[in-house]
Amino acid sequence: MVIEEKMKNIVIRLQQDGADVLFIRSSLKEYLQSYVLNFVYENPKYSKSMVFSGGTCLRKVYGINRLSEDLDFDLLDPVDLNDFCTEIDAYFKKKHLFQGFSLNKRPNDQQITLKFKILDYLNLASGSESPLLHVKIDLSPNNSEHYKVETKLLNDFDFSYLVKHYDISTLFAGKILAILNRSRLWGAENMETIKGRDYFDLLWFLQKEIIPNYERLFDLARKESDVYGEMKDDSLVKSSLIKTLDEKVELANTKFKQDFERDLLPFISNSSIIEGFVDSYWENYSRLKGVLLGRK
C-alpha cells in the first residue's frame, strides 16, 4: 500500500491548498510518471534505446511551470513491446505491490496505456465515474539523424536515476512540428480542436530565447510534407514554417480560444490566471517570435 498511501498524502496536501480535482488528478499522474521513468532508466534493456521527449520531459528535466499527462519517448533502436509490457506489469505488481494495476497495448500501435485503480480509494471518483487513473506511454521511432541527446540525474519524488533526454533545442523543434502537424478531434461530434498546452510550451521556449534545432526541423518537415520536400532552400522552408506557425497561433487565439483555455485547466495550479494568459498570448507571441529568426 506504499504507492496508495503516498498518493493519498498528495491528495490531502493539494486539497488543503484548494486545488481542483482536475489538477489533483494530473498531480497524481506526475507522481506515477516517476515510477515509469525509474523503470525505464534503471533497466539497461531500455535506457540505451529510449530517449525522453515531449511535455513531461520539459516538466521533469527543464522545470516548465505546468503539469503533463503522457510520457513520450523516441526510440533509437527497436524495443520489444511485449517484453516491455510484461516487465512493467511485474514492476508495479510484484516489486511495488500495486495490485490495482493493469495495462493495454493497442494492436499494431506503439502506445501503451497504464491503468491504476486508485481514484475510488482516494475518493476522487463517484457514481458512474471510472476508478481508473490512466498514464499513457507513446513510443515513436527517431526519424531524423539531427538531434542531440543529454543525460541528467533526476531526483524525482522517491527515485534518483539518470535520464536520457533530448536537449532543449531538439525538444523545441519537436514542439513546433507538433503544433504544425497535430490534428485533434474532441467530443462525441469529433469537432476539431487544439492542445492548448502545445501553445503554452511554445511561449515558454520563446521566453527562454531557445533557438530550435533547425536541421532537425527542416529534415522532418521535408519528410512529412511534399510541399517542404520540394523546397531546396532552407530559408524558404524556414519562412514558410514560421508563416504557418503564425496562422496556427492566430487560430488558437480566435477560433479555438475556449479550447485553449479548457485544455490548460488540468495542468496549471492557479486556474485563475489562464484567461489572462490566453488573452495576452498573441501580444506576447508577436513580441517574442523574433527568437525564431535569430533576433532577441
UniProtKB/TrEMBL annotation:
It comes from the Bacteria. It holds the Pfam family AbiEii. InterPro entries: AbiEii (IPR014942). This is Nucleotidyl transferase AbiEii/AbiGii toxin family protein. It comes from candidate division WWE3 bacterium RBG_16_37_10. The lineage of its organism: Bacteria, Katanobacteria.
